[in-house]
Design goal:
The protein is an alpha/beta fold and 388 residues long. It is built from 13 helices and eight strands.
């Protein structure tokens, strides 16, 4: 067994109605909390009111920044950071999906450091310990942001989507309350749930994986294979919602250590060049070609994942099971309504070339069992244009 380190400082508060305990956790870090969310969801707005009420009853003052958008931009982060500074926030609480949690992290950085959050991306020395404490209350089950040192942000004018990756933006507390995910519509459930699948899949096969991650990720993949379709079919199924919330959390813990691989590197570039494409769609569109490009370089792990989806593959050898894994993931994408091509997402030929040319900007591709050259990335994308 190879040597490894594992670091996960976030306190996980898991279970139904645990959000009502937020006042006791926030009080550890001060009595002036900036709440960070989007503005379009009535269910999130209701949750924000619930959190603000709990905090207010306990003597914590709140301000609310509700300007988060999907794929949060540098402009959004700056507006939130300005409010944090004006309010003298002592703790930042992200409420919502991955965009809100990522925005909360970036705001916590920009509010306490010179320049902007963009100045502290993954290839820099990163933010310091001056970063404001962060608490998350997730409402989706897919991004894993509640347990990662990652904040994804977009610089719109440059068509550049990148990330801060640093231990100082790990949330101090992650409140994972499955009841907050009950209002997710089927499409969002599918897209975020597939993101959770990808986190666990990619951490499992990553060159940076380790024994701890492999146990967590494989368990999460088993959960997602069984419960994602159930959560899509019946959003009120609290068992399915709870299982998916747990699988999502495991995914965050896994990528925090092992990182992601080729699909996330390409998916981030798709989102940067074509902001109308959701992160889940960007991943789904490249997965069929990615699996076929990669499986021969990780036969044992692809075989194990294939057997998660199809127990009959227990009777097959690893080579056959690994190859069939690609077909099983195709079928999974069809079942959850994400069997899409680049043409379906309105991505032009010129965008495909530009996305491929930027495919090595982020280092994720290096974790893939088979490392792709730029032209191989272009070929993967070109083969992903149409779905039969």
């Amino acid at each position: 067994m190879k040597s490894f380190n594992y670091f996960a400082p976030t306190e996980i508060v898991f279970g139904c109605r645990r959000v009502d305990e937020i006042d006791s956790y926030a009080a550890r870090y001060g009595h002036r909390a900036l709440l960070v969310s989007g503005s379009s969801s009535k269910s999130v707005a209701s949750l924000v009111e619930r959190v603000a009420s709990k905090l207010g009853d306990a003597g914590t003052e709140t301000a609310h920044f509700n300007g988060v958008i999907p794929n949060p931009t540098t402009d959004v982060i700056t507006k939130g950071a300005e409010l944090a500074k004006e309010f003298s926030a002592e703790v930042v609480i992200g409420i919502g999906g991955g965009s809100s949690m990522d925005a909360a992290k970036a705001i916590a950085v920009e509010a306490t450091h010179p320049g902007t959050a963009w100045d502290y991306l993954h290839y820099t020395s990163g933010p310091t310990e001056r970063t404001l404490p962060i608490i998350t209350v997730g409402t989706t089950a897919g991004t894993g942001s509640q347990t990662t040192p990652c904040s994804v942000i977009t610089k719109t004018l440059d068509k550049d989507k990148s990330a801060i990756w640093h231990k100082n933006i790990f949330p101090r507390v992650a409140i994972v309350d499955p009841e907050t995910t009950l209002s997710m519509p089927p499409g969002v459930t599918a897209q975020t749930g597939f993101d959770a699948f990808c986190h666990n899949f990619e951490a499992y096969i990553s060159a940076g994986s380790n024994a701890f991650v492999e146990v967590m990720a494989l368990e999460a993949l088993k959960i997602i294979a069984e419960y994602l379709s159930k959560a899509i079919a019946d959003g009120e199924d609290i068992e399915a919602r709870s299982e998916m919330a747990w699988a999502d959390t495991l995914g965050g813990l896994s990528i925090a250590s092992a990182g992601v691989t080729l699909p996330h590197g390409l998916g981030m570039q798709i989102g940067g060049h074509c902001p109308h494409v959701t992160h889940g769609e960007a991943l789904a569109v490249v997965y069929p070609e990615f699996t076929r490009f990669t499986y021969k370089s990780a036969v044992g792990k692809f075989a194990a994942i294939g057997r998660v989806f199809n127990r009959e593959l227990e009777k097959a050898g690893d080579e056959a099971a690994a190859e069939q894994c690609c077909e099983e993931i195709d079928s999974f994408l069809k079942r959850i309504g994400l069997w899409v091509g680049l043409d379906d997402l309105g991505i032009a030929d010129s965008d495909i070339r530009a996305i491929a040319d930027c495919g090595q900007v982020l280092s994720d591709y290096r974790n893939n069992p088979r490392v792709a050259a730029i032209e191989e990335m272009f070929e993967i994308l070109s083969k992903s244009r149409k779905r039969g």
